[in-house]
Amino acid sequence: MVFKAALAAGATVVVAACSSEGSGGSGGSNGQPAADTPPKAKITAEPALDAKDAPVAKPVVVKVTDGKLTEVSLAGDSGKQVKGELAADGLSWTSGEPLGYGKTYTYTAKATGSDNKPVELKGSFTTLKPASQNRATLNPIDDAQVGVAMPISVKFDSPVKDRAAVEKALSVKTDKNVEGAWGWLSDTQVDYRPKEYWPANITVSVEAKLYGVDLGGGVYGKSDVTTKFKVGRNQVVKINTPDHQMHVYRDGAKVASYPCSNGLDSDVERNTPVGTYMIMEKKEHAVFDNARYGYTNVNKKWACRFSNHGEFIHENQDNAAAIGKTNNSHGCVNLLDADAKAYFSSALIGDPVEVTGSKLGKQTQSDVKDWLYDWGTWKTLSAVK
Fold first, then answer.
1. Residue 244 appears among annotated catalytic residues
2. I need a labelling partner for 356 at 20 to 30 A (CA). Which of 53, 86, 120, 380 fits?
């Protein structure tokens, strides 16, 4: 005959075979166990039986004292077994995969005590059920090769209330020691950037272990996301707008200079904005429209966007007379066709573009503005102090 003791949260279940009493039993003359009677096995579990709102990302652990586990199973609502591993010493079992939200799980655990008698644990618990789930995406994507100014960006489907909880679930690993920090650019976006540009030719691995994380207001992370990408060679574009020249540097050495025409000097709103930007996208053919300045469906080649304010580096052979001599664009950097093609071929998404010399200040309304902040200011954008 076996019996089960009720297991409240954090309590211990003791299950043992009944023993007879009297002179034929194992007790002493006073009816108490003999001093050399082996102790009975005790099985404990976390989450405990009948627990409510159990966490889904924390491993389930079953332990035994004064005995060894012989069998442990944990099944979900559908009967599917949760993966787990029994320790080599037989003293514990640990689940090896996360649990589902709002599910009921049933334990069955068996052990043999030091007294060679079997004990058993049976019962169930339920996991937490979020009010809603928030999905996150990571950029750069797996296997991407990017420039040295490329930030890591985590974007959410809906606003995050507990930003610190998110940051604590994020990790960045690199081949070399790199000082960096997370900064919130909005309530749905947190970016990581290094203090200085990334070292060239390193691999960066990112984990966002958000599943099961309370993001505030009853909202939980929908899933974990990861990425692993490579930083390419160090290439930096430098433009001092009054010079009408665009210089390209590799590893600090100038490798190319191209005559250019930048934003019209006499109209601040048409200036190419100052600040450190980065190449965001590349298009062999691009169509430009700007109703404010009266042009639509203007086709240009070799276009590299470097700001969500609307600036590109692109071919404008139609403006050849001004290139290298006069700034007359609407903010873009105009190059001759051959030069634009040569630069386009060399550029990576994430390459920095450093602009100086104009009167139009930094354009921080973009969601790609990481390098427009000095390092001290950037660190204040973190929710973890």
1. no
2. 380
Query: Taking the CB of residue 259, how many other CB atoms lie within 10 A of it?
Result: 17
Q: Which of 191, 182, 180 is nearest to 151 (CA)?
A: 191
> Which CATH number do you get for residue 346?
2.40.440.10
Q: Which of 304, 309, 330, 332 is catalytic?
A: 332
CATH number at 170 reads 2.60.40.3710
Range of the domain at 187: 132-232
Dist. CA 215–CA 134, nearest whole Å? 8
Q: How far apart are CA 14 and CA 66, in angstroms?
A: 11
d(CA 334, CA 267): 17
In this structure, the answer to whether residues 169 and 213 fall within a common structural domain is: yes
Q: Point out the catalytic residue in the list 244, 309, 314, 330.
A: 314
Helix (H) or strand (E) holding 185: strand 180-186
Give catalytic status of residue 314 as yes or no.
Answer: yes
Do 208 and 325 fall into the same domain?
no
Q: What is the pTM of this model?
A: 0.85
What pLDDT, in 10s, does the model give residues 96-118?
999 999 999 999 999 999 999 99
User: Do residue 199 and residue 226 come from a single domain?
Assistant: yes
- Structure-token pair, residue 192: 């990581």
